[in-house]
């Protein structure tokens, strides 16, 4: 009897905790816009659809592959004066996308960079008891906020390298497709 | 609580600031004031990065590296970090050594755009400092990896404090400082893959993955330096060392010292040098 009972354990479904090891939403698009540009500036959306030719061109000039076809871009003006562009983009961090935004001046200089969201779902910690213990006794009333329960960024070298590559790619997009459009 | 992140110092720097209403000692700040404080802290970090980065070719650090023997006028931040590095090299019997840039270059851990140096490494005596200038006594390459990032974290915190922020943290990769009303749970993964959670408040915590072998995964390279009798670690051992200290620059520098010692010796040595070895053993 005991033997069969033990055997049945092998068929018990395993429950895996699949929660992100670190994730943070830092800013909304509007907050990032206000931080990079003047609060009184007006943002008009100019989403840009990139053809495969355009994507090849971007790859050639920046050395980085343009993954998405649709690039969210805003034209920024204040009192009728052209201030520059605001672009939202995703790059892969270590395993997951980092969403960030940059402002580009009419001359093609980066006016500022803000990270909007950072998420890493991959983390060896999820399999460890010490990490899973953090969920013990939790109810829906608990904050479930990553800062209060779970780990932090430690060393994000890859994320940074990819962010910098991403910015370069956006500047190439500016040079190819945006700089002429307001001449 | 407002949090932002920017890619600076070769890593992703996160700054958080909060304003607690019932905190009577500090005037509470509104959201735009908190944002302004964080912006100021970021620009302080960026400024220190520009001055002291090895990878920025025109940094003040590289001005020194390019002209050994010449007195170079430096900004107050650079002088402070050099003084700290020199003093700490002396205090730790050269276990903390920021003059190993040449050796790092020759092993390919640092780009060699300055040209190959004549000497692979020296010690703290090779850094000479006067009122507002410094010079290298011998043709060495300084790299402030082990201390400048921690210093930048400290300066970002003081920038936040100056703006009246009553609590928050600055997290630059392996260097973290939590201050005031804030506290943060940090999970540290040990070399065996297991991790442990600790709560950090009003202190700085630095972690370094240290190795004496060069590989892309292990950025902190320990080189045979200084007091060879005191080094007890097997040269091919890769470990994570974490140190708690009142200031991030000190915690940062102490991880390099701890990297050379076995755990028992490290604990006492780190204590003598004003830190606290954090034991993450499960």
Short description:
The complex is a heterodimer of chains A (183) and B (282). By secondary structure, chain A is of the alpha+beta class.
Task: Please outline the helices and strands.
The complex is a heterodimer of chains A (183) and B (282).
Chain A lengths: L1 H8 L12 E4 L3 H8 L5 E4 L2 E2 L2 H11 L7 E2 L1 E6 L2 E12 L4 E8 L5 E11 L8 H4 L13 H4 L7 H22 L5
Helix pairs in contact in A: 3-6
Chain B lengths: L1 E7 L2 E8 L12 H22 L7 H7 L5 E2 L2 H16 L9 H6 L20 E4 L2 E4 L8 H18 L4 E6 L2 E6 L3 E6 L5 E6 L2 E9 L8 E2 L17 E7 L2 H12 L3 H10 L3 E3 L4
Parallel strand pairs in B: 10-11
Antiparallel strand pairs in B: 1-2, 2-6, 3-5, 4-5, 6-7, 7-10, 8-9, 10-12, 12-13
Give a structural overview:
The complex is a heterodimer of chains A (183) and B (282). Chain A is of the alpha+beta class and 183 residues long. Helices cover 31% and strands 27% of the residues of chain A. Chain A has 6 helices and 8 strands, in the order H-E-H-E-E-H-E-E-E-E-E-H-H-H. A 6-stranded antiparallel sheet of chain A has the order 1-8-7-6-5-2, with helices on both faces. A two-stranded antiparallel ribbon of chain A has the order 3-4. In chain A, a hairpin with a 4-residue loop joins strand 6 and strand 7 (97-104). The radius of gyration of chain A is 22 Å and the shape is globular. Chain A starts with a helix and ends in a 5-residue tail after the last helix. Mean pLDDT of chain A is 75; it is low at 1-20. Chain B is an alpha+beta fold and 282 residues long. In chain B, 32% of the residues lie in helices and 25% in strands. In chain B, helix 6 packs antiparallel against helix 7. The longest helix of chain B has 22 residues, at 31-52. Chain B is globular. The chains are: A alpha+beta (183), B alpha+beta (282). Chain A binds chain B through residues 24, 26-27, 35, 113-115, 118, 124-125, 128, 130-131, 134, 147-157, 159-160, 163-164, and chain B through 1, 3-7, 10-12, 14, 35, 39, 171, 173-174, 176, 184-189, 193-197, 207, 209, 219, 282.
